[in-house]
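Provenance

Sequences were taken from public entries as deposited. Structures were produced by running a predictor on each sequence independently, with no templates supplied. The record for Hydrolase from Butyricicoccus porcorum is shown for reference.
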Amino acid sequence: MNVCSYVSIRTPSVSVNRVCVFSAKKTGNFFSFLFLCKKYDIMESAKNICEVTAMALKAVLFDLDNTLYDFSTAHKLALRAMAEYGESRFDVPARRFLLAYQQADKQLKEELPYVAACHNRVLISQRMLELLGLPSVVTPLELYETYWSTLLHSIKPREGVVELLSRLHHQRIRTGICTDMTAHIQHRKIAALGIAGYLDVMVSSEEAGVEKPNPKIFHDCLNKLHVRPNEALFIGDSFERDVCGAHAAGLIPFWLNTTNEPAPEADFRYKELHSLKELL
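Predicted structure for Hydrolase:
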């Protein structure tokens, strides 16, 4: 990570920007930079990432889906498995099954906006079967298990995730997951990824009662860690939900842009990453 590309800090007694240039050339290591800034006792500003230092860095929070692992690819595999199950069980073409799933998903998100229940695959499967005129009692559980068993067996941490979490743990920087969706399935994902031992807390939108970008879900996670917003970084893939939400909550936002999307305009500073390996 080229910290010099976005850091420019000065104090009356020392030009930290020059020190950071030296540090980046010498180590290229984000955490070396953070602890170097701590040495000079510089206070951070949650509103301007150019002023962020490790002086008060106590926690790093993460989104889960499409941040710590590739949800999009796993989701496609799971949908295909569910459609194939439906085709064999009900003699409904897989394509029709998928179209009904998309319609059900859209309806629930419109009817249950910004609450965890809109992601519930039992509810989506139930609505999908109703749209198709098929039995919608008990069968949703079969579709639910087909979807999630496929997804959970296919996921693995993104490159750099385990190393990054291990380093944070070793350096006694607390970690948390702040995620939309229901708690049960998010815990199952964390277990499947094998990263539970590196995490201190998790807050889901089911627990918070709101979804990102609502600041409450971020603050609930910070409260569990006993950390103030300006003492934490947040890393996520959704610009609207993760970056804007984290900024509104007072955290330092890092945008994980693995698909190389154009950078949105914003009236605040944030750091763009293309891989979590950049933090190692």
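The longest helix spans residues 71-90.
The chain has three domains: 1-55, 58-68+157-279, 71-154.
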